[in-house]
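Support case: user asked for a sample of complex input and structure output to validate their parser. Sending the pair below.
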Amino acid sequence: MTTSKRPKLELARKREDEHEPQAGSRGLSVVDAVKNYIATPGHTLAILRYFASETPAQTASALGISENVLNSYEKGESAPTLPDLNKFAKHFKADFRLLLSIFGHIGQDASETSMGIAAQFDGELGHREKADLRKLVDAFSKRSKS
Amino acid sequence: MNLMPSKGADLSDLLLQKGGAREITEFTSAWVPWFLQKKFTDSNWNYRLFEWDEILENDFYQNVAAVDPRGLLHGLMAFRLRSDHVRVDFVATAPFNFGRAGARKGVGSALLSHAVQLSIANGHKGKLLLASTPESESYYETHMFRRTGKQDDEGLPFFELPAGRPAEVFTATFPPIVSTSK
């Protein structure tokens, strides 16, 4: 019994050691932090690039977009297309849902399930998404008729 | 601007000073980007970002900032001296110190230990009161804080560090940052 408990105890101690206490507030959501402190959501893409230690040329090449387009996204001069946003998420291993949120594609409180197709967007609709979309359109058409 | 703190350093070279315009700049230019990139890339990272720019500008609170010799901001605490205790309104280590890969461990605890010393210096025998974030409740429970049974307006539970022996043990466990600049 002792041996089976020991790993759990060690894990608990390790967690405790790793923890830093916080107090005072539930804190800001990512969306609110971007709104409060970042001039444009596009700057967040530059932050992700900075922490990945990549030059604009490296990132643009990896994403298959031009440096001008990347520059335009990062400066907030244009909003990333959904396929490009998806590329950013995959390249930087970043949360696509959060990226969609800060660029205003989904509501802040949306859940994985309530976001539906948008959450699973992969640059192009797959068979399942197309089927879901077809069902949605069908359902809407039936309601419209009744 | 270098957002990368050095790893593995202890807390002995940290200085405590009053937070002001410089710390607000550090917060917005270093803490916020760190917070964002970690939130985007690590779903298990549960750091809470407080609006330190507003807190540090608010005369309602006193504050201390823990900074290293390079001027990098490692922790912040806002507090008030009350009639029989020190109320810790906000305390946080820097985002880059938080979690498994954190650069400097124990900054938050050292700041709380500083609050205990303020409490002792003001004749309150180390008594503290604070509202814990959900992830920190176990920390306070295992370090002799006790629940008061009340909550703040965000529903966070209040914890108090009782005066006397618990406070002494806390400061012995987590030595405060002693150097003070300015």
